[in-house]
Amino acid sequence: MKSYLKVLETERLVLRRLGTDDAAFILQLLNEPSWLNYIGDKSVRTVEDARNYIENRPVAMYRRLGFGLYLVELKGSGEPIGICGLIKRESLEEIDLGFAFLPSFWGKGFAFEAAGAVMEYGRGAFGIPRLLAVTSQDNHVSVRLLEKLGFRFERMARLESGATEVKVFATS
Fold this sequence. Notes:
Layout: E1 6-9, E2 13-17, H1 23-30, H2 33-38, H3 47-65, E3 69-74, E4 80-87, E5 96-101, H4 110-126, E6 132-136, H5 140-148, E7 152-157, E8 166-170
């Protein structure tokens, strides 16, 4: 297993850059019913698809902007539990916070811990004063988390032409 750049460490978590060795985990995460329902189908069906997804999305963003989505691991065991990081989407004028965790790790404060660390990192390392975040209209759990992190609902938007509208939140 190749070791990838550690970006952040919290009390219980390590956030590091994703690499193609994480393909099996990404394949699992992107095919979780919760991911498919709230984020959407990325057509990742094989480990090879997952490797391509990692290379063409997070790794390409690290190269282009210096940030992206990071793998979230439990400190100590190194078990991957989700992803969290900063994303620059073509359809949004500002950078947004993204996160997704395996359902077995929901309700334990991991998303709040990881997202709070990423927000602080974005302000400190990249001078990002204000962040956006998007959720599907019915993702009430993520809305509660965003509100707890200090985000407020701002507007509805479409991330792609013809796509379903999503809720856009922003920090002040």
